[in-house]
Amino acid sequence: MSDQKLNALVVEDSPPMRKMIVFALSRVRELSVVEADDGVDALRQIANQKFDIVITDINMPILDGLKLVKRLRADENYKTVPIVIITTEGAEEDRQRALALGANAYITKPIQAPQVISLVREILELS
Amino acid sequence: MSTGDERAEALKADSLKEKTSAFLNEFFEKGEAMIRELIIENEKLRKQLEAPLPSEIDESDPGVIRSLVARISGLEREIEDIRRIAGAVEQESGDYRSRLDELEREHYELACRHVAAVQFQTAETFEEVLRTSTEILLNFVGIGAFAIYLIDEQDQSVFPIMREGGDRAELPSVDLEGLKSRLAVLGLGRAWTDGDPLDPFEAGELMTLPLYAGSRLLGLARLQSFLTQKPKLDSGDSALLSLVSEHAGIGIETAWVRAHAEDAPLVRGAVEELVGA
Questions:
Q1: At B44, is the secondary structure helix, strand, or coil?
Q2: Closest residue on chain B to A14 (Cα)
Q3: What's the pLDDT tens digit per position in B31-81?
Q4: CA dihedral defined by B263, B269, B271, B277, rounded to 10 degrees?
Q5: Contact B221, B248 (CB under 8 A)
């Protein structure tokens, strides 16, 4: 089995929330986690390296999560990269809109670390 | 957060790490012991099965029949023993799994509290304290609609300073004494903890969280309703609410002092006078 870690990008403008998601993902040994504090910062990070999974909030200033999903899906390199939305928006139409734009999964806050970990493991097909 | 609190948190984290380590060691030792037991039982059973049967069975010889019946009974007892051991292993395994899940959950809740406390500690302005309070109540606890009020200590009124899930302008100021007579939590004299009254601000709302700096009441958080996906408070929520009750108050007091303090260089003489050195 390769020792090469998979790269995860966490996009969240709330510092405590971002820290908790990073904390949860740090329990997944196969992942190396990079943080971005909004959609624009995320695009900057993406320009620097390739990510194997993107976890993003929706409500962020300048470039929100849904616009980020749209931009990523328009990029040849990110057409099939898994995107997970973590958000306070609990309405079904918000979920449907995110999935229609190309997100793979949609989790509502408040989150629990085991929930995030098992979802990421499932999406990346990790044992 | 005070140094004492930080130490306590660090000790608690160390203790949890030690407990986790001890638990894992015990788990693997017990697992190994059970597997050894299973192997021994398995060997016994195999030896019995490998024992040569007589090439011809004299059905008329009662001794042969008795010996066969005894062997069958022995084998049945062995099977029961193995089933019992396997059942015990499964049961222990299940118990350890649920204990591990419990420890993981506790670990995450502790991490949430640590992150929240650090955020409050680093907040220097009113805006930062209010933003941190909002993020914790909304994202960590799952309160979808709430308002934070501060106390005007001169005219003894309580006025809204921010609101999530509604328009702040719709909320009027309220007389403090009148409010205190309705809401026992405003007379606690300390931060709210699990077991204290909830005292919703208005009927149908969730609770009122007093914001204290020590014994000084500085304001309150009026928690109105959960996010739609959050049905009720979870096991870790009370600790987070308690943290907000204490640290938001301290943050507000600190921000107030900072906003009014004059810049003064750190000078040995003044410091020694303050510490009584």
A1: helix
A2: B135
A3: 788 888 888 877 877 776 676 655 566 666 778 888 888 888 888 888 888
A4: -170
A5: yes
Tokens 């997944």 belong to A28
Is residue A117 within 8 Å of A82, Cβ to Cβ?
no
CA atoms within 13 A on the CB side of A50: 10
Residue B57 CA to residue B263 CA, distance in Å, equals: 106
Q: Return d(Cα A104, Cα A83) in angstroms, integer.
A: 5
Rg of chain B over all Cα atoms, to the nearest angstrom: 32
> Which residues lie below 8 Å from residue B246, measured CB to CB, with a gap of 6+?
B191, B212
B220, two tokens = 């309150």
Report CA torsion sign: B8, B9, B13, B16. Answer: positive
Question: Coil, strand, or helix at residue B148?
Answer: strand
Q: Which of B229, B233, B234, B244 to mutate to test the interface with A (most CBs of A within 10 A)?
A: B229
Task: Tell me, rounded to whole angstroms, the distance of Cα A44 from its chain centroid.
Answer: 15
